[in-house]
């Protein structure tokens, strides 16, 4: 390809990233950013979707700092914009420093990309979720917390600690977590900290969600 033609192509080409619940362009946008399982990297040329690939979010299983690591991961893909449902303050700071535009929406990945091309997505200028959003369990933030949730656990940061169900037996190496349950399809997911389940739409079908009570997390508790 001649150099001039290549430069012209580069001017008309842009890459964007979408937080994905699966490695399929036809799948749903994941409600979490730092802990979504995949990112869909979409290449747009002359306002048309030319290529899409899924990359695994290697930050999803980190004990902490997932938002920052995930933001750097997709920044390394040379994207100019990112699309998702919720963005914490640390990830948002990374995007702001790198001049990566942030857009908020829900639903199908492919539909979101089409809306982006048409200029129909809402660009946001502030974080939409608290730090540590998407983590199961109690979670800990920076600084002094909002008070004791349980006699032996002190809440910290902006997150909302999981309140244990007295009638639920807890085995060693497990922890209880609040969950949000879809009112339509019964899809269940960990409750985002600091956000009521009724304010969240189901990432699978888009219906409202409700608090589903405490469940057992299979993640081993660090001693």
* Number of helical elements: 4
Largest sheet: 6 strands, mixed
Rg for CA atoms: 19 Å
Q: Tell me, what's the shape?
A: globular
The count of β-strands is 11
Mean pLDDT: 76
Q: What's the helical proportion of residues?
A: 10-25%
Strand content: 25-35%
Side-by-side strand order of the widest sheet: 3-2-1-4-5-6
Spell out the CATH superfamily of the largest domain. Answer: Dinitrogenase iron-molybdenum cofactor biosynthesis domain
Number of domains: 2
Structural class: alpha+beta
Explain what this protein looks like in three dimensions.
This protein is of the alpha+beta class and 223 residues long. The chain folds into two domains: 12-123, Nucleotidyltransferase, domain 5 (2-Layer Sandwich); 164-217. It has four helices and eleven strands. It has helices spanning 3-11, 66-75, 89-97, 109-118; strands spanning 13-20, 38-45, 48-56, 81-84, 101-104, 122-123, 147-150, 153-155, 175-182, 188-190, 209-217. The strands form three sheets. A six-stranded mixed β-sheet has the order 3-2-1-4-5-6, with helices on both faces. Strand 7 (147-150) and strand 8 form a beta hairpin. Helix 2 runs parallel beside helix 3. The termini are far apart.
